[in-house]
Amino acid sequence: MNIDTFRDYCLSKKGVTEGLPFGPDNLVFKVMGKMFSIVSLDEVPLRTNLKCDPDRAIELREEYDGSILPGYHMNKQHWNTLILDHRLDPKLVFELIDHSYDLVVDSLTQKLKKELEDL
């Protein structure tokens, strides 16, 4: 998967913004100001960190050994690093983006959830 496909999918989700708060090599996607993805633009193949349910994170790492790893520079219990090469089906990547987004939305305050709903 290339950065354009990944970026377009993330930005198609409600309330999402992008930025470079950690420098020019790390593109961050947030929903209502809360991070759900960070992409290392200087990595080949492309890599992304996505939030994940802790039990599912372990299962994914076991099933996709070498393609899904504990989150680099993140809380390894709650984040995975995906290597976006030909080994991961794009459908799975989109599903995991959705999962990360949903986890963050679920953790928002009621006020932020209402603001998101009203967008």
TrEMBL record:
Keywords attached to this entry: DNA-binding
GO molecular function: DNA binding
Listed name of the protein: MmcQ/YjbR family DNA-binding protein
Species annotation: Christiangramia oceanisediminis
